[in-house]
Every structure is written in C-alpha cells, then in structure tokens.
Amino acid sequence: MVFADEIKEEDFYLQIKLINREKSKDSNSQHYHIEVKDGEVTYHYKYNGFPFPPNRERSSKYRLSDEALSEIIQYIKDEKIDVSTEEERSTKANGVTRSVDLSLFLKLEGKTTESKISGNVRIFRAGGKIKGEIIRNKNYVNSVESLIGDLER
Q: How far apart are CA 138 and CA 143, in angstroms?
C-alpha cells in the first residue's frame, strides 16, 4: 500500500471530466468535473434534461486527509485507472442508449496517464435486435465512475 505521506502532494494530480448521457424520451445528461491538486478536491456536478431535480448543479471544495489520499491512490492502482486508454465508438443505435464521454489526466509517482473514452455503454429496449456499438472499456469507465462517487461530498 502507498501512503500519502510518502508522496509529495505535487507528485499527485488528477483531473476527470465525465459526461453520462441517456438518449430516450426522458433524455438527460450528468456532467462531472473533478480535480485533485495539492491534496485539495474540487468537485462540480451538473444535471441537464428530464426530470428536473431540485439539485441540478452542485460544487464542493475540500482537503483530503492523508488516509483518504492513500486509499484513492491504492484504488487507482488496483483498478488500473493509471493505464492510458483511448477508445471512440459511434453513439448511433436503434434503442435507448446510455453513452459516455470520459477524459482523464493523472500524474502519479512520475508517471502520466491520459485516457479518452467515448461511446455507448449500453443499448436497450431495441426490440431484441440491437444495432450499434458498445465500448470495450466499460470496466474502466465503471471504475472511474466509482472513484467519482468516492470523491463526492
């Protein structure tokens, strides 16, 4: 396990930009922009579409404890988020879709990771005859979404 006090704060930087979209009769999107710099987290979330929740937009800024930073770094390593990944797929499909646009930049222990993934994560309710492409890096996207959830306050 890596301990945060072993890593200088300037040796860890993370920026995540993620847009989740649902294309349906109730189309909507969720936008996330997270930055971890010098041990401080800046978190921004925005919701567009239907239905209209009362908390359409929220932001927070807080400092991570050494323990929390250590856990985040370990999670990034365990889930292989520190591996650069690129994938772009068409979002054209014949059913209801959930698609993503993910951009991730990570500096950890002198290594730089840049990932960009866009495309459909799921196509459903297409009458059993799905036409369209699904991204191959769903596990990577799921891991980043989990990390976003852990960073939300």
A: 9
Q: Say if CB 98 and CB 122 are below 8 A apart.
A: yes
> What is the domain range of residue 37?
4-151
**CATH code of residue 60:** 3.30.1560.10
Question: Would you say 87 and 136 are in contact if contact means Cβ atoms under 8 Å apart?
Answer: yes
Average pLDDT over residues 123-135: 77
Structure tokens at 8: 């200088």
| pLDDT value, residue 3 | 43
pTM here is: 0.88
HSE at residue 124, side-chain half, CA atoms within 13 A, is: 5
Phi, psi torsion values for 71, nearest 5 degrees:
-65, -40
